[in-house]
Give the backbone structure.
Amino acid sequence: MHNFKYSALIVVLMSVLVACNKASTEQTGSAAPAATETASAGNCALVSTKDNSPLAIKVVATDTPEAKEFLATCVNPYTKKFVADAEAAKAGRKVMTLNGCTGCHGGNLTGLMAPSLVKSGGTGAFDTKWVYAKNATDKGMFETISNGTPGTSGGVMSTWHSQLPGHVGDGLTTDDILKAIGYIRSEYKGDGEKTWLK
């Protein structure tokens, strides 16, 4: 019985590792967006965390009013709402849980194989600061989640936005990513400036 528990644990950990690393194999051969492409539908010019190339994310017919507002202004309408209302923030937690984000960042966002998102301290190099300084803004975090990361923290994060090539599975909508960011902000425990609340 003891060996069975260890075997089950190994299977679970391997599944999480495969999910977190899936993007690096899916992205092989996918072209980066051309620099001449429109970054977005509004005034919010989005760029890749990987290489600063424009991200071709635009308003689509199925976008919520909140998604359209963000793409025009770079301001996430969910952030202040979720920080003030823990019940509303559950919508963002649901996005993160159902899409496997917590498999790498942890159920309480304190980090497992990926950095902590609550920044409440710890022993990891990025448990108290953002891996990418741009993540101190909702625009920056949206860019990081949408197109993934180059692996500065020791691991590569997948491309998640459904409008970008090489995204994981069905991808996430603009609205899904904004809800996840709002939830992350609602759980932040660090002592850094909360620029997203300004």
About this structure: Residues 119 and 129 are 6 Å apart (CA to CA).
